[in-house]
Amino acid sequence: MDEFDLISPLDFRYISEKEKKLYSAFLSENARIKYQAKVELALVKVLARKGIAPKKAVPELEKAVEKISAKEVYEEEKKIKHDVRALVNCLRKKVSSESKPFIHFSATSYDIVDTSNALRYKNAVNEIILPSLIELEKELIRLALKYKKTPQIGRTHGQFAEPITFGFFIANYVDRLGNRINEIKRARNELSGKFSGAVGAYNASSLLIKNPEEIEKEIMKELGLKTQLISTQVAHPEQFEDLMHSLVSAFTVLANLADDMRNLQRSEINEIAEFFDSKQVGSSTMPHKRNPINFENVKSFWKQFMPRMNTVYLDAISEHQRDLTNSASVRFVPELFAGLSLSANRLTKTLKNIAVDKESMDFNLEKSSESIVAEPLYIILAKHCHTNAHEKVRELTVKAKKEKIPLIELAFMDNEIIPFLDKFSEKEIELLLNVKTYYGLSEQKTIKVCSYWKKELKKK
Amino acid sequence: MDEFDLISPLDFRYISEKEKKLYSAFLSENARIKYQAKVELALVKVLARKGIAPKKAVPELEKAVEKISAKEVYEEEKKIKHDVRALVNCLRKKVSSESKPFIHFSATSYDIVDTSNALRYKNAVNEIILPSLIELEKELIRLALKYKKTPQIGRTHGQFAEPITFGFFIANYVDRLGNRINEIKRARNELSGKFSGAVGAYNASSLLIKNPEEIEKEIMKELGLKTQLISTQVAHPEQFEDLMHSLVSAFTVLANLADDMRNLQRSEINEIAEFFDSKQVGSSTMPHKRNPINFENVKSFWKQFMPRMNTVYLDAISEHQRDLTNSASVRFVPELFAGLSLSANRLTKTLKNIAVDKESMDFNLEKSSESIVAEPLYIILAKHCHTNAHEKVRELTVKAKKEKIPLIELAFMDNEIIPFLDKFSEKEIELLLNVKTYYGLSEQKTIKVCSYWKKELKKK
Amino acid sequence: MDEFDLISPLDFRYISEKEKKLYSAFLSENARIKYQAKVELALVKVLARKGIAPKKAVPELEKAVEKISAKEVYEEEKKIKHDVRALVNCLRKKVSSESKPFIHFSATSYDIVDTSNALRYKNAVNEIILPSLIELEKELIRLALKYKKTPQIGRTHGQFAEPITFGFFIANYVDRLGNRINEIKRARNELSGKFSGAVGAYNASSLLIKNPEEIEKEIMKELGLKTQLISTQVAHPEQFEDLMHSLVSAFTVLANLADDMRNLQRSEINEIAEFFDSKQVGSSTMPHKRNPINFENVKSFWKQFMPRMNTVYLDAISEHQRDLTNSASVRFVPELFAGLSLSANRLTKTLKNIAVDKESMDFNLEKSSESIVAEPLYIILAKHCHTNAHEKVRELTVKAKKEKIPLIELAFMDNEIIPFLDKFSEKEIELLLNVKTYYGLSEQKTIKVCSYWKKELKKK
Amino acid sequence: MDEFDLISPLDFRYISEKEKKLYSAFLSENARIKYQAKVELALVKVLARKGIAPKKAVPELEKAVEKISAKEVYEEEKKIKHDVRALVNCLRKKVSSESKPFIHFSATSYDIVDTSNALRYKNAVNEIILPSLIELEKELIRLALKYKKTPQIGRTHGQFAEPITFGFFIANYVDRLGNRINEIKRARNELSGKFSGAVGAYNASSLLIKNPEEIEKEIMKELGLKTQLISTQVAHPEQFEDLMHSLVSAFTVLANLADDMRNLQRSEINEIAEFFDSKQVGSSTMPHKRNPINFENVKSFWKQFMPRMNTVYLDAISEHQRDLTNSASVRFVPELFAGLSLSANRLTKTLKNIAVDKESMDFNLEKSSESIVAEPLYIILAKHCHTNAHEKVRELTVKAKKEKIPLIELAFMDNEIIPFLDKFSEKEIELLLNVKTYYGLSEQKTIKVCSYWKKELKKK
After folding, report:
1. How far, in Å, CA of B395 to CA of B386, rounded?
2. Which CATH number applies to D109-357: 3.40.250.10, 3.60.15.10, 1.20.200.10, 3.40.1160.10?
3. Is some CB atom of chain D closer than 8 A to the CB atom of A72?
4. Phi-psi region of B235 (alpha: psi -120 to 50; beta: other; left: phi over 0)
5. What's the CA gap between A143 and A150, in Å, rounded?
6. Which pLDDT belongs to residue B385?
7. Within 13 A of A29's CA, how many CA atoms are on the CB side?
8. Pairing of strands B226-227, B272-273
9. φ and ψ at B251, to 5 degrees?
10. Which of C88, C130, C285, D128 is the most exposed place for a label (fewest CB within 10 A)?
11. What ipTM was assigned to the predicted interfaces of this complex?
């Protein structure tokens, strides 16, 4: 098979060789089936421990599980048209006849499927999602601290607002992403399996075992998962929904960051730039182009994956003890894991190489200073008991714009304001003449936030 | 104004008089502005306590806040085209000139807007959402316990699966809804305000106050909210996103329950029925019709509101220190609160009056018994060491269907099975002949789940 | 009722007095019921014409229809819990007993509901949507023509690309919006009603009338609607879906335009500005702010309404001869009509008053000229048979950036390029030295597109 | 590469070998690049015809285009990081130096990308989508005609309504799907390319060619595409949006059909059944299960793909002359083509083998007859001038239910009704006693609809 004959673009275009190996271990069909086999093994281990299955069933099944492959299971599935039973048949073939009856003993398919998916997603969070996001978080912390004192004009509504530092801008993302990392961990911890049979009432297992709930709990303990308090044929979808929401929400933070960076890279703003290779071509007709293609790509991935949250909610509705109208749709879930991880990886790589143009930041800040002095002027006037300072300054800004005179000049010549000037402290005057330093607690906050998240990241 | 001239259907059609009063207190424009005024008051309180504002500003503003109305603010907004400044102007008019400068002192609009919305949503959760959901949860618990022993055929893929009890069916919803109630509480507890000024760096406030972060914390303490670690002009959107997800996710549980009930009300299944008034008309042409209109309505509301989660994610992206491309979209958020609450209320009311038709449940269970005996037969055979029990029974079901002979008869005459029959216990034989009792731990689980959630509901 | 106690923000906040009157005539509950009554009337007219109903039933019902109000119908609905039957009862009360049996004769509710909605939406398109969009389109045409020669730097990926004119930029929207107007008209023309009874098979009507399909056709003719070839209890949803798509798609054009305008209004770009009233406040703390609040608002409305297309698709699935899980969701449809119309109206008003800053456009274009000359240089070199012109120029742009020498200077001193210079025409040299005029067919295209759409708009 | 190591499930799980070959020809990366090369060739052909490029460039490029592969282009892309330029470089290497300058001459990347995608999607509609949908439509027509006289109870709200025939039920889908096929054709016909350069103003081309619009038109003619009236760097997204809507809308028809079939297959309804192989396993624990897995699968695919319409609308917003925040998201478009086609194929295959259980249909109809007679009774009473027939019959249905007496018996004994009985015609009486035949024009409509669509399908 030529990979360029594939229909889905993720595998052949976006996943690097290195990522592919890692992703496949959790997100591929081989991984899916391996995890199902692991759950079948956990069942037999517990049954053996309880004296229900023969001891030897455990090592036999361990070997069988090792050998199982998606290819083999798919061949069996072609014949019998049932995926889990196909796996069971393949495993049964590999063990002695004494062990055979205890494979899948008392289980329904979704005891295996839901439990193995919970485990697989948990591990995928640990091995794929968290490493990607944490690496990005660390890079953001590095950037925030590096530029904690670099003044930048803050912007609201795309308009010059008041100064911050570039580090402070980044520190906001440190906090948002950090918070999402914790949320993902929390959702991961709630993932739970079930082993309650075909309609959730332990019908079959209670024929065989005294306390089937105990068996269920031991299997989950074996696998490191929580048990749901009750279930139908399937585990309740809410824990999975929460995990998906936490991933989509983290993805949204990445998309916002990418958008901001794209905007900072606009020709007219020009405060940052993606690294550009000496051989790289920016446009097939405009040789000068340097486009924010990596930031654009991250936003684009988000646009593809965010709406899939609708599918998650749609799939959470399942009739009575379950229907299978999620059969195909849940199989696309691994795409979202991959999409988020590779977007984070791309962002990290891009941020590690961005050029921050302090000159441009200074230039823009300078350009803004004429107007943004309005806020500190109003605040200082109010502080010194001007009773209508906001409106007064607002009128002056209108006049300044009309007459093309700098606001501060106008203010210092204004008869209503002059009486207040004497009350202004030296520091206040200085600030009004050099609003570039009017960035408040930007530096302190940046340090505080970065320290906090450095510690938090160490938690499991 | 005639309410039937309104465009939006919520107010005139779906919200009852009683609900309207409650909803308006938190979800209307009057409520929105009241809450903003409350935050302005909290600011002045803290400023007075710190000796920055005069003491008398507090009682003056308290009176002003009481008198403020949306109508007044809207009139001012018409002139100056800025909603929060309009409120500030209206409040300023109502206090002495010594107090005037300290209203909104050092604040940016979103210090007020985001903080007041966090508070308002928190209260709306407490006063609207949780009461509605908890009442529904209690009704579900009542139903589950009432029917904990009422056998019902369980269904997967819309097909007869194995027996449960009607109470067990409901108990699954008790657990799912209970879990969502807790999730909503958790998300509610994380709602947080901000008071960090125009770009989040306390630019203005640090001109006035030594430790502006302390002011921020005291205001939040005053209001009973958490403070975000850092912010831009606006609070980070993630806590709000989490709340909205928890609401949409709870809504999805309601929709699933409504769907299940609709299906149980199908003419062919006929296990439950919505109450039908003696004067009620079911169809304008078919006088016999009894439609599940309330369950349908709940599903329909879900279809209207679930996709709005997309808007929540879209609104979470805001450029740099903020843009205002969420100006209108967030104003629709109260609709979702109302939609969820009134759907829960409708469900509660409908469930309180449903007719459960035990005869039909019995009839359907009886009908299923011929085929569903397959599972216990396979399980008992496997238990008694038949090495290929599933396949054996599967083949018998094919034969039974073809030859129109009950499966159990066929099995008891089968040469391969006969040798195993002697090993079957009396209880096993009995169960095979009366699969209606094959509902496993349905009753025990129902009791356990209901006890658990009765206790949980008492938590705040 | 105080309108500020409403939950839904559309009515009290966004719809102006003038819009309210227009919108109510088609989008309110009063309108909904008026249109249903119109369809009941059309039925009786046809029945009378066919000699089935008495002649006098027509004037009697005409009077009754005039008097009907939502209020009256809602009171009846409270008793019998069926909305259409409530209307029928109200109408029946107003006519003689000879006419009574022929009201709603042979009809099922959805004969009335679907047909009246088709008619109502059709009229709402004609009276609300199209006038709003056409007025916007005309304003865009005016702007495009006014600025057809005003050079502006074109931007791709937020980066300086090559020059266009501001009129050309607008002309692209003229074309896109024009195209959507035509698409909406097309979808409107396909709206169709049905009169085929409770399950679509004319069961009842074929008891009464020889050719019930003929009756159906005459009713639709009476109302100016198409008839569907076949239907269930309800009209097929696809024609309505197409209309909704056309509206959402038009809305997306508006959102794109709003985004572009917001970006052009960025402080650093500064090419356009929303009108700002002399009393208007831009920020509650930053007196200098001039925010693109109207463009932001339009984008925000789009974010609220675009995802509702999901609801449209969800509602298109209805079980068997219909279910009613769209009962509430379709009642929100008028909100989308209103949202689109008022967004268009807001855009029109804003565009009529925008300030176009030609100086800034010139400034930005000038700033870009150093780099954008790369494309014409490469093209002219290639034209004169340089075999690797793109790569050559690309390398020069890297060098120019590194050495901070204007690209064109560097090129004119380059040994590889010098031999080609002689081949360049005078016009080509001139263009390279003044890339501002390098805007191709911007002017011609603008004129062509505007002429085309001026004509198209005149079509019905 | 082991295909089971892939992340995306479409390729390894859902696409059959036969489908894979067909899909790859239009939907794979190899196809994408082949189509781009085709457009590059069309450009050179037109340039040669106009005397701008040398004649020999055409056969040279034809050969080059034949040899091009995604693999080669990807290797070049790795070096220069620009996909279209990579293709151009690969093509340039394969032609003489005289031809080199004319490859991609005056073009920007999106002249190639948008035009080639329009062509590729058009062909994919013709070769993949339409054949799949038309085969399904033909199967539906076959079924409709086969069962045109097979009575079935019609259901609204999941409740017995009035009788139809099974063919009539299917005929409604014939009409809906037929209508969507026509809509897809219409959208396909509007697909258009562009060749207007980097910002859409023909900047580069107007340096080289007298009438660049003519060149553009000739290229489109060469490829069989329409030309947009004006464009930016990219073609307007609306035509593509319309196509995507038409596909999603058709998909929704399939999902509705699948849902209906699933419901008809419920154990309690049991009117149809998916074919079940003699070796097929329905459940890993319940040997008797026969699940509607194919219908469930179609619904599930729809839940995965429907929400992607959000991505389409999101991608339609592109800043100024374009941004590239759709870079990745549009690459997932082929997944939707594949998803729709294979869902249609699966439906066709499943329908060809469904078992229609006429006995069950009869049984259900019989069961309904007691209540559904209410409509014809009311209609006939009204026809014979009972002035309050609906209410009278409604009251009788309540009584019938309460007293467990068949409605018709009760009616025939009712003092108010007895006087009317004499007026009833023999045929009317007969119908009331045998409501099974009360299916109106079901048969005639079925024939009419099928005839109509048989003819329509022949149109291109």
Report:
1. 15
2. 1.20.200.10
3. no
4. beta
5. 11
6. 84
7. 23
8. unpaired
9. -60, -35
10. C130
11. 0.96
